[in-house]
Amino acid sequence: MSHYFENDETLESSPRNVYYVFNDVNFSLESDTGVFSKNKLDKGSELLIETLLPLDLGSNLLDLGCGIGPIGLTLAYFHPGLNVTCSDVNMRALGLCKRNAATLKLGQRVTVLQSDIYTEIEGKFDSIVSNPPIRAGKRVTYEIYRGALSHLVDGGSLYVVIRKQQGAMSVKTYLEELFGNVAVLAREKGYYILKASKK
Predict the structure, then answer these.
(1) What is the reported pLDDT for 150?
(2) From CA 68, how far away is CA 25, in angstroms rounded?
């Protein structure tokens, strides 16, 4: 059985759209089978976007594990000075993300690339955001947290969404050990938005 955090190009295609609204703007993103939250915007991503929209995210942001792009593309849409790199291991998701960026006329500010966690990521970012693939296991998710340190500028921040029942408190503790700080920016229906900043 294939998972959204893998790259399985043999999956049958069944195109559909994901619809959601932020700040009275209606978004319609192309989606398909074999990608995360293929039918609707998941609650974790929704809360992460909602929490980050009013923040100063700097000028360069990495959406790690972007899927079809709702987090990175929505933030880019509302932050005209933001350049966004959307990365994922799943090529089908990346193809959709690229088309969605073009539909939203964000192609000039959005880079879409395939990367197994940070393997193909170059440079440093003001912000890294992730709705980590919990089902991929700690080997993957904890590498997202660890690797953020070397891919953030000084003063840059990692933002993640984790459900309490999927280990939010242990992730919070781990981020405190890594970064020396962590803040809970939002908490709703079991989801936590965590921020850790590189000093």
Answers:
(1) 97
(2) 18
Helices (H), the chain: 43-52, 70-78, 91-103, 138-151, 168-179
* Maximum CA extent, the chain: 46
d(CA 165, CA 93): 26
Report the percent of the chain where pLDDT is more than 70: 95
pLDDT tens digit string along 97-155?
Answer: 999 999 999 999 999 999 999 999 999 999 999 999 998 999 999 999 999 999 999 99
Encoded tokens for 37 = 């939250």
Q: Which of 159, 163, 176, 186 is nearest to 71 (CA)?
A: 159
Which contiguous run of DSSP H or E holds residue 17? Answer: strand 16-22
* pTM attached to this predicted model: 0.95
pLDDT reported for residue 1? 42
Q: What are phi and psi of 158, to 5 degrees?
A: -100, 130
Q: How many CB atoms lie within 10 A of CB 174?
A: 18
Residue in 179, 159, 130 with CA at minimum distance from that of residue 58? 159
Q: Which residues of 98-107 are buried (b: 16+ CB within 10 A; e: fewer)?
A: bbbbeebebe
